[in-house]
Design brief:
alpha/beta; binds glutamine
């Protein structure tokens, strides 16, 4: 029998339910594996060994007592460290939250536990989710499991590296691409659900109108299983939808015969580097072989999506991060007066990227500039939504690469914020419009590093997006198994 850390969530649930393996054995296997790799990977800010063991033992006791186990029975789940787990540190990879311990769990964490999952640890990220490489973490670098001198992507880079190497499932957050891009860089599946499908209660806010929580897994089926467990209305999040959640596993194997897939002209995919373009072309051919029709569509505002995202996310960050003042949460720098305390705590607590965004956002929201920046960005966003909705009258889903390249090297883009931002060009449209999007592994770049294919659907058509992802993953000759190669 292979070691349990190699198993996906579905296999773990089946074996734990039948008693073939205990939840504790699964947990120990993932823990040993992750601890072995951690010195070279740096995926975790906190490993919850004792709490995890206790939870795993409780799941095993439940089984022995004849109780029915939940849909994630015994599955270890790593959590991005901007999502609260009661009693565990919550740092957002920022100095300003050093030493802060969460007093309650996020709704998604409560739901995972209700489904008998085992919380595994807290994963590294870009500070407050701001970045695309994990390099803005105040604590450590996370290395790409495929090639250690490359970044894992960001901001959920720790979650992606963890899934590519030692745990079956992690939760990440995606504001402008932070689940999908690191999933692509690490060769795993990343799902950004429709905005409002999953509660954000207990997620530390970065840009509330585009913050989403979603799973990273090694297969689309495991992603659908996890998403099903965390989705659904929550009285503690007013933006969470009350629609009943469809059974996300039900139609997964139905295939995509006759489905219409759109590619937007404005993405100018033919201008990509040859290796990324080749992988893209092969993915279109594979989808056609599966019975899909590929159509060209147009949405001119796509060209403005990333600029629009960066205005809006900075504005929202500047207000959301006002609460970190050295008084209520985390690190306080002592001073003579309250003003000095605020200034010193924030100056020393926040890193450069966070400060840059707070300053840009504050400027963009200031009197006299509000209409030029925030107001204009909001209208760009509405135009984009209208255009994509129109496109969805002709096609069932849109396709795009997840990122314009595979994983890049450390320090390659830190001095040039614009170069960093370019890795988000394909992910920001679904962020701004709240539409569901998945990244599935799609071949390799010239260095042999994983690439991703992104599938975007209309709002609340998460099941369609998953079905296409599943068909592609299942049939594609370019499917990759990160575990075989990262082992
Ligand atoms: N890379 C993007 C940014 O820096 C997206 C981050 C995210 O989705 N949290 O804002």
């Amino acid at each position: 029998m292979t070691q349990p850390w190699r198993w996906g969530a579905e296999a773990i649930v089946r074996r734990v339910r039948s008693g073939e393996v205990s939840a504790l054995e699964v947990f120990e296997s993932c823990l040993t594996r992750s601890r072995e790799l951690e010195p070279n990977l740096g995926a975790y800010l906190d490993l919850a060994a004792d709490d995890g063991r206790q939870r795993a033992l409780a799941v095993d006791r439940k089984r022995r007592g004849g109780e029915r186990l939940g849909e994630l029975a015994g599955v270890p789940v790593a959590i991005k460290d901007n999502i609260s787990v009661a009693g565990r540190p919550l740092t957002c990879a920022s100095r300003i939250l050093r030493g802060f311990v969460a007093v309650e769990s996020a709704t998604v964490v409560e739901r995972l536990e209700a489904a008998d999952a085992v919380i595994f640890g807290k994963c590294n990220l870009d500070e407050f989710g701001m970045g695309s490489s994990c390099e803005s973490s105040a604590y450590q670098r996370t290395h790409n499991p495929w090639l250690h001198d490359r970044v894992p992507g960001g901001s959920s880079g720790g979650s992606a590296a963890a899934v590519a190497s030692g745990v079956p499932v992690a939760l990440g957050s995606d504001t402008g691409g932070s689940i999908r891009q690191p999933a692509a860089f690490c060769g795993v599946v990343g799902i950004k659900p429709t905005y409002g499908l999953v509660s954000r209660y207990g997620l530390v806010a970065f840009a509330s109108s585009t913050d989403h929580i979603g799973p990273l897994t090694r297969s689309v089926r495991d992603g659908a299983l996890t998403l099903g467990a965390i989705a659904g209305a929550d009285p503690r999040d007013a933006t969470c939808s009350h629609r009943p959640v469809a059974d996300l596993m039900a139609g997964l194997e139905e295939g995509i015969e006759g489905i219409r897939l759109g590619v937007a002209e404005e993405l100018e995919i033919d201008r990509l580097p040859a290796d990324v373009y080749d992988a893209w072309q092969r993915s279109l051919a594979a989808l056609e072989d599966l019975g899909a029709e590929i159509h060209s569509v147009s949405a001119p505002t796509l060209k403005a999506a990333t600029a629009c995202y960066y205005v809006l996310c900075c504005c929202e960050a500047s207000t959301n991060l006002a609460r970190f003042d050295g008084v209520r949460y985390g690190q306080r720098v002592p001073a003579e007066t309250v003003d000095e305390l605020l200034r010193a705590s924030r100056s020393q607590g926040f890193g450069d990227e966070v400060k840059r965004r707070i300053m840009l956002g504050t400027f963009a929201l200031s009197a006299g500039h509000y209409d030029d920046f925030y107001g204009r960005a909001e209208s760009v966003r509405q135009a984009l939504r209208r255009e994509l909705e129109q496109a969805f009258e002709r096609v069932d889903a849109l396709l795009a690469p997840t990122a314009p390249s595979g994983a890049f090297g450390f320090d390659e883009r830190t001095e040039d914020p614009i170069a960093m931002v370019l890795s988000d060009v394909y992910t920001t449209p679904a962020s701004l419009t709240g539409m569901p999007a998945i990244s599935v592994p799609n071949g390799r770049d010239a260095q042999g590093l994983p690439l991703g294919l992104q599938i975007i659907g209309p709002a609340f058509e998460d099941a369609t997006v998953l079905r296409i992802g599943r068909a592609f993953e299942h049939q594609s000759a370019w499917r990759i198994d990160p575990l075989e190669e990262a082992a």
